[in-house]
Design goal:
With 201 residues, the protein is α+β, with helices and mostly antiparallel strands. The chain has helices at residues 2-23, 26-46, 61-73, 78-87; strands at 90-93, 101-102, 106-113, 116-117, 127-134, 153-155, 162-165, 170-179, 195-199. The chain folds into two domains: 2-73, no CATH class; 89-199, Immunoglobulin-like (Sandwich), CATH 2.60.40.10. The chain has four helices and nine strands.
Length: 201
């Protein structure tokens, strides 16, 4: 009797196990995953590398040319750069130009575009005052520190827009430089072109 019960129990467990195996989705999932792997491997093997691509398989030349043209369009032309530069504030000499010959004393008139003239100590955005550089250049140290006040760096901290100079005969370079309320050069700097004049006898 006990043997019959044990045999019946074994058959019941075995039947339950085989039934679940037949109706379980696991074999189908494994088969699907295996199929996907085979497809991926086949696609990778069939895809040629760039070196193996024939001219017919390469993108049309027109598309490459078009992409290059688009890149060139992003670079401003000389005319566009001129417009950009002209939009920036700049100083200039009203009554003098490069190569002029003058007699001492002579008058210098200052001009400015894109900025308002204001006395030193004014910190409003877009304002500044003139400095006249004579026979010197705008050194990098002046981009952070106040411009010095000496014979080569003349300050017009009251907001003056002209002056009268008495210089010995000879050749001189002149440049106008705008400074902020603390006599520090703006960033970017606002200057005139450097001109050379000659003071005659």
């Amino acid at each position: 009797m006990a043997r019959v019960l044990i045999a019946t129990l074994i058959l019941t467990v075995a039947g339950f196990f085989f039934y679940n195996m037949r109706h379980s989705p696991l074999p189908e999932v494994m088969e699907a995953a295996s199929t996907e792997n085979r497809i991926a491997i086949r696609a990778e093997e069939e895809t040629p590398s760039a070196a193996e691509m024939s001219p017919e398989m390469m993108p049309p030349a027109g598309e490459a040319v078009e992409a290059g043209a688009m890149a060139e369009e992003l670079v401003p032309s000389e005319d566009e750069m001129a417009v950009i530069e002209n939009d920036l504030p700049h100083a200039y000499f009203l009554n003098l130009k490069h190569g002029d010959v003058v007699t001492s004393p002579f008058k210098i008139e200052f001009g400015i575009e894109g900025m308002k003239v204001a006395p030193a100590g004014t910190y409003e955005t877009g304002t500044g005052h003139f400095h006249l550089l004579i026979n010197t250049k705008l050194d990098e140290e002046f981009l952070e520190d106040p411009l010095p006040a000496d014979d080569n760096h003349i300050h017009f901290g009251k907001g003056q827009t002209e002056t009268e100079m008495a210089l010995e005969p000879g050749e001189y370079t002149l440049q106008l430089v705008m400074g902020d309320g603390d006599h520090i050069v703006h960033n970017p700097s606002v200057t005139s072109d450097i001109i050379t004049i000659t003071v005659s006898e």
